[in-house]
Amino acid sequence: MSKRFYLTTAIDYVNGQPHLGHAYEKIVTDVLARARRSLGEEVFFLTGLDEHGQKVQQAALDSGKTPQAYCDELAAIWQAFGKKLNLSNDDFVRTSEPRHKAVVQAILSRLHAAGHFYKSKYSGFYSLKEETFLTEKDRRPDGTFDPGYGEVVQLIEDNYYFKLNAHQQWLIDYLEANPEFIQPAQRRNEVLGLLKHELEDLCITRPLGRLNWGIPLPFDPDFVTWVWFDALVNYVSVPAAHADKAVLSVLDAPELETQNPALELWPADIHVIGKDILKFHAAYWPVMLKAMGLPLPKIILAHGWWQKDGEKMSKTTGNVVDPVAVIDEWGVDAFRYYVVRELDIGPDGNWTDSGFQARYSAELANGLGNLVNRSLSMLKRYRNGLVPQRHNELEPEADQVVRQTISRLRANQPQGALQAIWSLVNRANQYVDQTAPFKLAKDPAKAARLDEVLFNLAEASRVLAVLLWPFIPGTAERIYSQLGLTESPDQLKNAAWGGLPVGHRIAEPAALFPKKETTKR
Ligand code: ME8
Questions:
Q1: FRET pair for 167, CA 20 to 30 Å: which of 59, 126, 358, 409?
Q2: Which residue is closest in CA terms to ligand 1's atom 18?
Q3: In 3D, which of 383, 381, 386, 336 has the Cα closest to residue 363?
Q4: Which whole-number Å values give the CA distances from 458 to 63, 132, 432, 466, in the listed order?
Q5: Ligand 1, atom 12: closest residue by C-alpha
């Protein structure tokens, strides 16, 4: 058994409803996971929920439920959401699960024994909303705190601190020496900029009196673990639960040994996260791992944020995109295609209904859908659905697109890969217009030429299905079944030209992306 290509998403706060930002991150990760599988690699794709903390405790209390019952109800919604997005995750972590809590406690015990923590009194400001301590530096010139912090209270309390500051220079050196660690480069620069200022030690507990919905501190019953010290650990607690030796060997906790078949997962190959949680992943998490004696993840891939109609999405103003409603109306593949095609990993994006509908109509319905539909319909009409002799007119262009797609997928550039794929969609549609098979069909002397054209179009459709599988797997499978192929288009090696067997009979063509009235803005 060899190490799997291990990808993770951020784990979403369980309170609140899934929105476009959550959907985007999970779809991007799913595309990268499927791409690796399609390239023949063994993959492990993890996503899940961040369930502890003050906000969840309060929301549960307000709804008259225990925090666990409250989380169980919401977790069902989030898991159904993942299914709706057609995610291919291999596991789904919930931080309230015993398998996760046990690993957090083992890590805390180990770090405590090794002297990485100290107890100290905190006196200062605290944002209830952000569950974070604030300092004088966080005040605005008029002395107030940003309204984003919500209610800010004054606190005096004991807590445990992680000696983060001691590792600052090591972290800077690591980032300097490993330019590929944080991607894209703009985010790496942001972290290096942040590290020009001194990092404060990290408060990793909350007193039990104030918060009990958290993981108890194993060495002091008066405290629970701060939600981020708990949440980040999901990336290694799940490998531990799958008996990953890399993780288990440093935890020194025989009680964590499981009967599960052992997987090799850690270190993660990619953590996909949003730009707002970069500091936690690119500064705190590496130092935590170093203290544990674990290797660092290979890449932290930080995406930008979506707005709607040029403004921050907000439930209070109703300015939100409901992915479930869009999927119910337009189909999951239209949604998956749009978010990946529209927003490169890095910059911020803007959802407009008109932009979504324009891409649906031009690129999916009139682009891909029309190509496949007319190619297969003509093959049916003019050749009774039988694939003619192989012909290689579009092969050089198709091969080039296959190469570009693969190299962009390996470089974690799914948007660029889609651009390459659409150059083949457009070329093949142009080929229909240039060769005019409907005219060739009228002239019996042109039968051989018509055979050539029909082969090129059917084979281009097949190659496109293979290339598109990581992005829009349902559509790719539908193209294959319309081609009468029983296997799955899920292996990129089958994108090589010439896979369509001569004399094979295709199945019934049907519209992939029905044309729609686009009346809404
Ligand atoms: O931060 N556009 O959870 P979360 C794009 N539990 N991405 C967005 C977005 C938007 N408008 N809004 C949120 C948390 N996201 C923590 C993570 S990981 C150990 C713990 C992204 O539910 C956000 O950047 O607030 C993050 O990556 C993910 O959604 C979950 O956000």
A1: 126
A2: 10
A3: 336
A4: 57, 58, 11, 13
A5: 21
Phi-psi region of 150 (alpha: psi -120 to 50; beta: other; left: phi over 0): left
Contact (Cβ atoms closer than 8 angstroms) between residue 432 and residue 371:
yes
Give me the pLDDT at residue 462, please.
98
Q: 321 with 350: CB under 8 angstroms?
A: no
Asked whether 69 and 198 are in contact (CB, 8 A), the reply is no
SS3 of 123-191: the string is: EEEEECCCCEEECHHHECCCCCECHHHCCEEEEEEEEEEECCHHHHHHHHHHHHHCCCCEECHHHHHHH
Q: How far apart are the first and last CA of the chain?
A: 52
Main-chain dihedrals φ then ψ at residue 207, nearest 5 degrees: -65, 140
For residue 204, give the nearest of 119, 324, 85 by alpha carbon: 119
**Which residue's alpha carbon is nearest to atom 22 within ligand 1?**
12
Q: What is the DSSP string of 360-374?
A: IIIIIIIIIIHHHHH
Ligand 1 atom closest to the Cα of residue 22 is 29
Closest CA to 27 of 96, 83, 87: 87
CA 351, 355, 357, 363 torsion: positive or negative?
A: negative
Q: Which residues pair with 126 in a beta bridge?
A: 133, 153
Mean pLDDT (whole number) for 217-231: 97
- How much is the mean pLDDT over the chain? 96
Q: What is the DSSP letter of 339?
A: H
Pocket test for ligand 1, best of 215, 225, 276 (most atoms within 8 A of CB): 276
Report residue 521's pLDDT band, with 50, 70 and 90 as the boundaries: very low
Residue 159: both structure tokens together: 């807590």
Task: State pLDDT tens for residues 162-188.
Answer: 999 999 999 999 999 999 999 999 999
Residue 157 has pLDDT above 60, yes or no: yes
Tens digit of each residue's pLDDT (9 = 90 or more) over 285-297: 999 999 999 999 9
Dihedral angle computed from the Cα positions of residues 452, 453, 457 and 462, in that order, rounded to the nearest 10 degrees = 0
Listed residue (409, 476, 344) closest to 7, CA to CA: 409
Please spell the DSSP secondary structure of 377-409, one letter per residue: HHHHHHHTTB--S---TTHHHHHHHHHHHHHHH
Q: What are 390-440's pLDDT values in tens digits?
A: 999 999 999 999 999 999 999 999 999 999 999 999 999 999 999 999 999
Q: What share of the chain is helix, strand, coil (3-state, %, to 5)?
A: 50, 15, 35
Q: Distance (Å, rounded) from C-alpha 130 to C-alpha 124? A: 15
220 CB-side CA count, 13 A: 18
Calculate helix-pair angle for 20-38, 332-342, nearest 10 degrees. Answer: 90
Residues with CB under 6 A from ligand 1: 10-13, 21-22, 24-25, 50, 231-232, 273-274, 276-277, 305-306, 313
Give pLDDT, residue 518. Answer: 60
